[in-house]
Automatic annotation (TrEMBL):
Record lineage: Bacteria, Bacillati, Actinomycetota, Actinomycetes, Streptosporangiales
Descriptive protein name: Glucokinase
UniProt entry tagged with the keyword RNA-binding: no
Cellular compartment(s): Cytoplasm
Originating organism: Nonomuraea composti
Record keywords, A-Z: ATP-binding, Cytoplasm, Glycolysis, Kinase, Nucleotide-binding, Transferase
């Protein structure tokens, strides 16, 4: 069969959201459309990202050759180069052999998705509905991601960052005891991600056992959230939600996120009602000088299935217009 030549931004476009465990892929068949042909591949099954992309295109996308790609990755992006934080994949986007390809940090892509999410893709965690202005997104998953989205005269601009590595937001006496226990056990500088993530739930459970002077089995994050009748597990989830509220309030204050604070990541959609019933929103507003300011900011949980890929698709739609007219 003769090779079909493909130019930059020829449809379809390839989008992806790649975490430490899963590589999610999809195709965009018209600008502004949501991804179709979505498939989730286990990253560990493929030695490199180009091999996972080739497998997706061959097995789930009819062997198409995309004219553009936007890949959201859980790790720092340095121009064309990527290195996933919790996976062995690293390399250059050029190795994909797509005429136009762009890398985004995963929370940068989530930030771009925010104006496109609607209806039952969002659940209120308190406060008013998100309005105009800067938006923030943060979320506990394998790590703790943070991003911002700023309105400009030329559309929205996403702001990636490394906010999950900010020092842990301890507030209540019990939380201070947790930090002291972790410091006494080999973790001198406790950052937010150490406690506000899936692995953070495990660490928090262990630390609360030390603080309470009890022995507890080593549990996974899913065990901890499943054991609703176990007092230590229940306390772990409560402390987690409270600290997350303070962290989200700190992000809102830092970015001036009057357009809303959105919560994402793999952990919270599994405990929606417990977050809503927790101290999350009270702690979000609990600031001596800025309580009224924070009370005016909506907090919303993203429960959409593939928001990272929605963001990657929106990014390509916005940039295709710019690239094709310039
Ligand atoms: N049932 C569960 N309840 C609570 N937390 C969970 C559950 N299952 C998994 N987790 C946590 O969620 C984390 C995965 O979150 P998320 O999906 O956001 O991760 P990611 O970094 O995007 O990577 P990937 O999806 O590839 O794992 C896991 O590290 C785990 O700690």
């Amino acid at each position: 069969m003769p090779e079909v030549s493909v130019s930059a931004f020829d449809l379809p476009w390839l989008v992806a959201d790649i975490g430490g465990t899963n590589a999610r892929f999809g195709l965009v068949t018209s600008p502004g459309a949501r991804p179709s042909n979505v498939a989730v591949l286990p990253g560990a099954d493929y030695p490199t990202l180009p091999e996972a992309v080739a497998a997706y295109l061959a097995e789930h996308a009819g062997g198409v050759r995309p004219g553009a790609a936007c890949l959201a990755l859980a790790g720092p992006i340095d121009g064309e180069h990527y290195k996933l934080t919790n996976s062995h994949w690293s390399g250059s986007i050029r190795d994909l052999d797509v005429p136009y390809a762009r890398l985004l940090n995963d929370f940068e892509a989530l930030a771009v998705s925010l104006p496109h999410l609607e209806g039952d893709e969002l659940v209120s965690l308190g406060g008013p509905a998100p309005g105009h202005g800067v938006k923030a997104v943060l979320g506990p998953g394998t790590g703790l991601g943070v991003g911002g989205l700023v309105p400009t005269e030329r559309g929205w601009t996403a702001v990636p960052g490394e906010g999950g590595h900010a020092t842990v937001p301890v507030f209540e006496p019990r939380e201070i005891e947790v930090v002291k226990a972790l410091q006494a056990h080999g973790l001198p500088h406790v950052v937010a991600e150490h406690l506000l993530s899936g692995p953070g739930l495990v660490r928090l459970h262990r630390a609360l056992a030390l603080v309470n002077g009890v022995t507890a089995p080593e549990l996974t994050a899913s065990d901890i959230v499943a054991r609703v009748d176990d007092s230590l597990c229940a306390e772990t989830v409560d402390v987690f939600c409270g600290m997350l509220g303070t962290f989200a309030g700190n992000v809102a204050l830092t970015l001036g996120a009057r357009g809303g604070v959105y919560l994402a990541g793999g952990v919270l959609p599994r405990i929606v009602e417990r977050v809503r019933a927790s101290a999350f929103r009270t702690r979000f507003e609990d600031n001596p000088d800025m309580a009224a300011y924070l009370a005016g900011i909506g907090t919303v949980l993203i429960v959409a299935a593939q928001p990272g890929m929605t963001g990657a698709a929106a990014w390509l739609s916005q940039h295709a217009r710019t690239e094709l007219v310039s």
